Amino acid sequence: MRRSGARAFTLIELLVVIAIIAVLIALLLPAVQAAREAARRIQCTNNLKQLGLALANYEGTQSVLPPSVVVAKNGTGFWSNGWSVQARLLPYIEQASSFNSINFTFAYSVPDNTTVARLTIAGFICPSEVRPEPKTSTTNTSQYGVANYNWNVGDWYVFGGIGASGNRGAFGANRSRRLADFTDGLSNTVVSSEVKTYQGVLTSCTIASVLEPNMIPSPNADPFSAVPEYTSGCTLKLTAHAEWVDGAALETGFTTAWPPNKVIKGGSSTVDVDLVGVGEKSGGPTYAAITSRSYHPGGVNSLFGDGSVRFMKSTVNGTTWRALGSVGSGEVISADSY
């Protein structure tokens, strides 16, 4: 009598099944990753919208926007207590207790202020950021929380020193703009945009005195070739945008000198690197190309003065991007130009 039984899979059939599963995974994985990135970008947009609401509430209380940093002059030169826009917005993002623990009379690096300085504020960090961890200072054991959303401090000319003319951006050292200053229109002015943490930056660069405040290179030029003065006297720093408490331009600012995600030629390759001249804390003047960058494919999220958040493509025309970065230069920007 023959015994009937279930037929087993052959080795070839098993291999075919495994191959089919592998193909399905290969097809589905990009879609899953794209869906996750879309969710991260939406959360990033929401973070910027919350900062927009915080700015509106600050302005409603103070009648002005916060300064990017406060720079004072003492007997030995220029000095800054360093506090950023983010620090001044804490009460308006449900961080009142953190704000109340700050002694704004002193720098963020003094012992009494290090507790708040090391905080990681979730609303300051984009979900797509690959390095959200706090920074440990190289000069002491202090830690600083990072931030991905920086403030528009102009296009090229950032700060002229005590008593000098201001920049064209929404924020500036020792300057608290009023909404009436935005004559280009709040909906036509970028106030905040994304940056990458631990960004490489060439700082303390020597800027030739022949460069006037408004003499900025072409937005389509290579920064090094356009500004050869940057190639000498610079110090490479690999930890920019890693201290949300610091109001210095290279930490919590960005400029519209070049379009989002602009890369610089470095030999046979291209690199992400920012360029900063003499810092605000030394009295200026300061020239800077601090580019808005993100890990979102194709562009960055940007907050406008009217509270809207728009995704700015990396291919946006450089002249248009600069126009969006000025508050009152009178440029005409068409709706289809970005």
Keywords:
16 strands, alpha+beta, five-stranded mixed β-sheet, 338 residues
Short structural summary:
The chain is of the alpha+beta class and 338 residues long.
Strand arrangement, largest sheet?
A: 10-5-7-15-16
Strand content: 15-25%
The helix/strand series, from N terminus to C terminus, equals HEEHHHEEEEEEHEHEEEEEEEH
Q: What is the rounded distance between the termini?
A: 81 Å
Radius of gyration: 24 Å
Helix segment tally: 7
Question: Which percent range fits the helix content?
Answer: 10-25%
Backbone shape: globular
Low-confidence stretches: 209-214
How many domain units? 1
Main structural class: alpha+beta
Number of strands: 16
Let me know the largest β-sheet: 5 strands, mixed
Mean pLDDT: 81
What does this structure look like?
The protein contains seven helices and 16 strands. With about 350 residues, it is of the alpha+beta class. This is DUF1559 domain-containing protein.
Please describe the topology of this protein:
Layout: H1 11-62, E1 71-74, E2 77-80, H2 85-89, H3 96-100, H4 114-117, E3 135-136, E4 143-144, E5 149-152, E6 157-159, E7 190-194, E8 199-203, H5 223-226, E9 235-240, H6 249-252, E10 253-254, E11 264-266, E12 269-271, E13 274-276, E14 286-289, E15 299-304, E16 309-313, H7 318-325
Parallel strand pairs: 5-10, 8-13
Antiparallel strand pairs: 1-2, 3-4, 5-7, 6-14, 7-15, 8-9, 11-12, 13-14, 15-16
